[in-house]
Specification:
By secondary structure, the chain is an alpha/beta fold. The chain has three helices and three strands, in the order E-H-E-H-E-H. Strand 1, helix 1 and strand 2 (32-36) form a beta-alpha-beta unit. It comes from Ktedonosporobacter rubrisoli.
């Protein structure tokens, strides 16, 4: 399996489905994960699930629509 230590992953649509699974996988592999979803309650649940799964030593952020635009501008 691959490791993502010292990496940051922005996972859009991570409140459910494939995005959620990817965020959880990246967290298990050591990445700092930014949870980005238009549904704040679903995104908050994912943060709680990742944290309760023993990944609390890592940093997680909840990113909503307005902040996502700002993050996209930084990437460009």
């Amino acid at each position: 399996m691959f490791r993502l230590d010292n990496k940051v992953a922005l996972v859009t649509g991570s409140g459910s489905g494939i995005g959620k699974e990817i965020a959880q996988l990246y967290a298990r592999q050591g990445a700092r994960v930014i949870i980005a979803d238009i549904n704040p309650s679903a995104a908050q649940e994912v943060v709680a699930e990742i944290t309760s799964a023993g990944e609390a030593r890592k940093q997680y952020s909840l990113m909503l629509r307005k902040k996502l635009r700002y993050a996209q501008s930084l990437i460009r």
